[in-house]
Amino acid sequence: MLIHGSCHCQNITFTLEWVPAPSTIPARTCTCTFCRKHGGVWTSCPTGTLDVVFADASLVSTHAFETRTADFHICSKCGVVPVVSSRIDGRLYAVVSGNASEGIGRSVLQQATATFDGEGEDARLSRRQRSRIPNVRFASEAATDP
Fold this sequence. Notes:
By secondary structure, the protein is mostly beta strands. It is built from 3 helices and 12 strands.
């Protein structure tokens, strides 16, 4: 199953290949202040592949919390955060915003609250390796034009 998504202005777009196709999509509603204020509802497929394209990479900023273990990719033009990535042991992992996904009915997103307060860095990175999308590619449209 292919899941497409984007920020509001489509400067950041993504395609997630979810294998095998799910009947429901698990989504984590994070309770941290950043995610609460941005409506963060995150999903990932540990057997999937994610392609992220920046139409104008100069309009994308990243935010990392004090641990610097994750980058929230924020469109500077519209303010939406459609993708969060983490580099762990040299490999890139990611989650995508269920709210930025297109063509998915809200009844398919099975939301559950997730609280990671007090989680140590080693436990956090281990969880991300097990649960996040392990095949991630970032590209810029300018770099992909012939």
